[in-house]
């Protein structure tokens, strides 16, 4: 058995989600090779080589891979992946974009967003927005899998000493091109990997009111998220959305403010270690999953919380 | 320009899902079924492109049981011109569906295929990407904006860190994210008209594709329930609990 892990990165640094994917790869067993594809991504390859449990890093440094275009990456992965029994990627928007395409090129199934490894052919994954957990077994000789990063404890960043080899496979499908991107700029931690997350819902009333959450977040070193209702109402951008259709988070502390607790929101945060809910409606379903509930007007409770931290 | 819109019949998103007692799956008996919400967004986008005069014909297609005709009728009530059902009662999985759709694409030769990014039952998020791979088309997944230009399409995608815009040569596959548009409701006259629109029924054998599932579902379980905790009476008490009991701040 041999596992190829596709590294998630921004050409400068390795995304922590990859360390969780390596953890899933260790549970499957066999040698672990990390594929770093990008442009000017040598530092990422060096970083990946230090991760615990990695035996080899392949670095495919080419213009064609700079923006992770699925058309090019899928062809690269399908070719490099020929030598491996398992191909793993994080269930991020990058992994979800190229992994099914790579699997179809190899004429194998893809298994999405696994939360547990049972054995080398059998995995658990949430279905119906996390309302059911399916145990699935794949009959294909090669398994292409995306991994839910929050379900696996990341391996150590340091301690490994894998070799870095350059991979000279160049795949440029020539049918797609990168135009531009608008990335949210924030000094706060990344939502998907933050230790503490504080999220606002429809109860926030408008986008300006999120300011009171930002204040608390900055005191706690927390990331700020939102429910789909708050995003749909236009209070905040979609990249802040926590839930089935947004990001899946599992921080040590999740504070839900003015969020009623729709199933689709719970699907994105119910694996958090400690959940706090602040809502003025004592019947809100969020209280059924909260470790600590406070029935209060958020516009009084949140500033008070801010002053007492 | 012709657009193909593949859609899926799924459990209605308002229904509370129950796992069967024998853990063989989810109980779908007597449960309300509907068009997958992301597929509704795909139909709406196609209809808007037609209203703008960019698209001349919209073909809806579904792969599934006979009852999926209901969802195809809904798609036609919303503005699709005709539809195709690839009828099968077998378990269908993304790779098999993508193969069936490729056969339809080869026949229909659409310039654009718009489909939902994922179905809310299996949550796979694979079919569009797989269809793109099999047909050699580029893909604009998780789209929040679609702009047609001469011979190409610009797609703005919802990515983890924000938004990314890519340019794809036509023909192309686009998968829809939530903010792409807000789907309309079908009007009664349009529902009546949709009953007369053409609906072709084919079998997987007609298409000559192998849709054998590659993945078996061994068991389906209810996730571990989270226990409700305690209610606190004040912000002071909350801060105290978080500091001294949960030790998370």
Automatic annotation (TrEMBL), chain A:
UniProt keywords, alphabetically: Electron transport, FAD, Flavoprotein, Transport
The keyword Repeat belongs to this UniProt entry's keyword annotation: no
Residue ranges of domain Electron transfer flavoprotein alpha/beta-subunit N-terminal in the record: 3-182
Gene3D superfamilies hit by this protein: HUPs, TPP-binding domain
SUPFAM superfamilies cross-referenced by the UniProt entry: Adenine nucleotide alpha hydrolases-like (SSF52402), DHS-like NAD/FAD-binding domain (SSF52467)
S-adenosyl-L-methionine in keyword set: no
InterPro entries: DHS-like_NAD/FAD-binding_dom, ETF_a/b_N, ETF_a/FixB, ETF_alpha_N, ETF_asu_C, ETF_asu_C_CS, Rossmann-like_a/b/a_fold
Homology family: Belongs to the ETF alpha-subunit/FixB family.
PANTHER family (alphabetical): ELECTRON TRANSFER FLAVOPROTEIN ALPHA (PTHR43153), ELECTRON TRANSFER FLAVOPROTEIN SUBUNIT ALPHA, MITOCHONDRIAL (PTHR43153:SF1)
Protein name according to UniProt: Electron transfer flavoprotein subunit alpha/FixB family protein
Organism the protein comes from: Alloalcanivorax gelatiniphagus
Automatic annotation (TrEMBL), chain B:
Lineage top rank: taxon: Bacteria
TM region(s), chain numbering: none
CDD domains according to UniProt: ETF_beta (cd01714)
UniProt xrefs under InterPro entries: ET-Flavoprotein_bsu_CS, ETF_a/b_N, ETF_b, ETF_beta_N, Rossmann-like_a/b/a_fold
Keywords assigned: Electron transport, Transport
Domain Electron transfer flavoprotein alpha/beta-subunit N-terminal, residue spans: 23-211
Signal peptide: none
Keyword Disulfide bond annotated: no
A Pfam match: ETF
Family that this chain belongs to: Belongs to the ETF beta-subunit/FixA family.
PANTHER family recorded: ELECTRON TRANSFER FLAVOPROTEIN BETA-SUBUNIT, ELECTRON TRANSFER FLAVOPROTEIN SUBUNIT BETA
Record's protein name: Electron transfer flavoprotein subunit beta
């Amino acid at each position: 058995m041999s596992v190829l892990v596709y590294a998630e990165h921004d050409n400068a640094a390795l995304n922590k989600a990859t360390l969780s994917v390596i953890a899933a790869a260790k549970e499957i067993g066999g040698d672990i090779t990390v594929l770093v594809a990008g442009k000017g991504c040598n530092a990422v390859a060096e970083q990946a080589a230090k991760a615990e449990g990695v035996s080899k890093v392949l670095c495919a440094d080419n213009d064609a891979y700079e923006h992770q275009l699925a058309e090019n990456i899928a062809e690269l992965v399908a070719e490099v992946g020929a030598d491996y029994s398992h191909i793993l990627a994080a269930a991020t928007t990058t992994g979800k974009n190229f992994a099914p395409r790579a699997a179809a090129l190899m004429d194998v199934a893809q298994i999405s967003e696994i939360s547990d490894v049972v054995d080398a052919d059998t995995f658990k994954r949430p279905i119906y927005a996390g309302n059911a957990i399916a145990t699935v077994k794949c009959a294909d000789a090669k398994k292409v899998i995306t991994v839910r990063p929050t379900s696996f404890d990341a391996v150590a960043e340091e301690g490994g000493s894998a070799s870095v080899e350059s991979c000279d496979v160049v795949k440029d499908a020539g049918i797609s091109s990168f135009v531009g991107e608008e990335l949210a700029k924030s000094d706060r931690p990344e939502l998907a990997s933050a230790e503490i997350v504080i999220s606002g819902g429809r109860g926030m009333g408008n986008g300006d009111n999120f300011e009171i959450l930002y204040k608390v977040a900055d005191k706690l070193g927390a990331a700020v998220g939102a429910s789909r209702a708050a995003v749909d109402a236009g209070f905040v951008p979609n990249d802040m959305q926590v839930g089935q259709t947004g990001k899946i988070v599992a921080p040590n502390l999740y504070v839900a403010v003015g969020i009623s607790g729709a199933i689709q929101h719970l699907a994105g945060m119910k694996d958090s270690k400690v959940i706090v809910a602040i809502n003025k409606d004592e019947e809100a379903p969020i209280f059924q999953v909260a470790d600590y509930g406070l029935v209060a007007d958020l516009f009084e409770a949140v500033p008070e919380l801010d002053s007492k931290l | 320009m012709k657009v193909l819109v593949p859609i899926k019949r799924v459990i209605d998103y308002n229904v509370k899902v129950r796992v069967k007692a024998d853990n063989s799956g989810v109980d779908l008996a007597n449960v309300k079924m509907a068009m997958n919400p992301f597929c509704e967004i795909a139909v709406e986008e196609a209809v808007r492109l037609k209203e703008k005069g960019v698209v001349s014909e919209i073909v809806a297609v579904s792969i599934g049981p006979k009852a999926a005709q209901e969802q195809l009728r809904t798609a036609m009530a919303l503005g699709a011109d005709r539809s195709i059902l690839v009828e099968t009662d077998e378990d269908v999985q993304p790779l098999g569906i993508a193969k069936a759709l490729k056969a339809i694409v080869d026949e229909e030769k659409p310039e654009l295929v718009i489909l939902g990014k994922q179905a809310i039952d299996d949550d796979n998020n694979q079919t569009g990407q797989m269809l793109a791979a099999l047909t050699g088309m580029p893909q604009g997944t998780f789209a929040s904006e679609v702009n047609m230009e001469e011979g190409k399409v610009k797609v703005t995608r919802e990515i983890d860190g924000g938004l990314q815009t890519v340019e794809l040569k036509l023909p192309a596959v686009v998968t829809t994210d939530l903010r792409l548009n807000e789907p309309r409701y079908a009007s009664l006259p349009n529902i009546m008209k949709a009953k007369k629109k053409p609906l072709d029924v084919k079998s997987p054998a007609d298409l000559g594709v192998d849709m054998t599932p590659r993945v078996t579902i061994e068991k389906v379980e209810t996730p571990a329930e989270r226990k409700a905790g305690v209610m606190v009476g004040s912000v002071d008490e909350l801060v105290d609990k978080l500091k001294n009991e949960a030790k998370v701040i």
